[in-house]
Amino acid sequence: MTLPVDQALRTLQTHGRIELRGTASGWVRLTLGLFTVLLGLVTLLAIAPPIVLLVVFLTGTPLPVPALVGGFGVMVLGVFMVALVRSMRKRQQQYQETENSPVVIDGRGLTLRGVGPLPWQDLGPAENRLVMLPSSGSHTLRAVMMLTPSGLHNVNTRMPLHLRPLLSPAVRRFGRGQQHSWVFVPGVQDMSTREVIELLNRARTHMGAWPQR
Asked: Are 189 and 20 in contact (CB under 8 A)?
């Protein structure tokens, strides 16, 4: 077991609580980077038609009416796409900021991204698992903690609506509608995802035997 996990577990055993500095996961940083690239591309789409039309006007080249209408349509579409991608990028930035919130582990449960504590009995083991992400429409390997039956009830029924997306996206489950079924494992500064998984699983296993303070 690596030194950062050793130190965290010793602190947890001694004090019954540990607070770690959260950090954005590689997946979140990658997604934000992709949104930034996409924003640049749709911005080019929005400004290209006016530039082309200006060049055509200055050179005196005749332009058919359908071409003018098409250019205007592309410009409108580009402006709409810029607004949409900027909104999506802003939401991703806000989510990334929440990932910098402290990760707190204690006898009450796990606090992450400003949400919690989530009771240990509501959380399954941390693991790398294929989960469905609505944003991609496909299964993706992510580090998650599946919600237990009590966790499904508490998150999907009792938790405020604005906090639920900070844990995971809502995914349609057969016969149950949209539901949050897991919690994304938080990023921790100076720890790899594998180390965070190990720390959470050992804390979850032994927390009942440690004093709660």
From this structure: yes
